[in-house]
Amino acid sequence: MAKRTVVTPAGQEWRVRRLWAPRFRGETITGRVWRRLRSTGRRTGGGVDVASNIGCGADLFDELAIVIGLVVVVLFVVFVAVPLLVVVVDLLLLVLLTGLGLVARIVFRRPWVVEALGPDDLRLTWRIVGWRTSGEAVDFIADALAHGAPPPPGHEVSPRPGGSVPRT
User: CA–CA distance from 69 to each of 65, 132, 168 (Å)?
Assistant: First the structure.
């Protein structure tokens, strides 16, 4: 597995791993859809005016049964059918994107991102072509950090998403 947590001789903890995809800062397609559904769901209103059609008692019970049936159907659709449909579409999209990502990385030789997360929101990244080579790079970087050596050259220094820029 290409994920290791090491402690340097100075007592700093580093997490070195291979990333499948770059970070999206918490924004995902499903997150945006759910936020939109929740915000539009609160604006719907209105009700059924049953009191205006009061006739004999049998008609009232029939209308009440129809209203209860409609409420049950609407609740089922809102709380079961729509979320289930979203989950199925999300899983299909996940499988499709995973397959396309693997094909892109294998056929087009897209590099894997190896990331080392250190103290003080320090994030070092390397782009390495090849599954096996990137796994070896994770082991090499983790071993170097564990033995007190500086990270290998050719790295980019950037803050973690939501963090501050490290001072050197």
Answer: 6, 59, 67
Using an 8 Å Cβ cutoff, are 124 and 14 in contact?
no
pTM for the complete prediction? 0.53
Alpha carbon distance 71, 65 (integer Å): 10
What are the beta bridge partners of residue 15?
A: 5, 117
Domain residue extents for the chain: 3-21+110-159
Q: Over the stretch 61-82, which tens digit does the pLDDT of each residue have?
A: 888 889 999 999 999 999 999 9
